[in-house]
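Z., the sequence and structure:
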Amino acid sequence: MVLAELAEHTDGRRLADAAKIDGEFANAQRLGYLLDHIGVGSQTSPLAVWLDEKKPRAAPLKPGKAAKGCPVNRRWKVIVNEEIEVGL
């Protein structure tokens, strides 16, 4: 998986800095959720702290797909409305 390979070289503080510049909370939430999902959540703490301070609304993992009744990931406030397949 490409994301897992990229995550190996990711600096958590730089990731948070990039998210601040981008300003799109939902994208940062989804990325944090996906990084946690593939097992590199230890690198996402600065991003999680920044998002927690901003208090974003819950965002669907897959935009445009129905999210009613789907579970919400508490750390990232992501509505998990899509199953993620992790292929190695």
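The first strand starts at residue 59 and ends at 60. Residues 2-79 form one domain.

Let me know what you think.
H.
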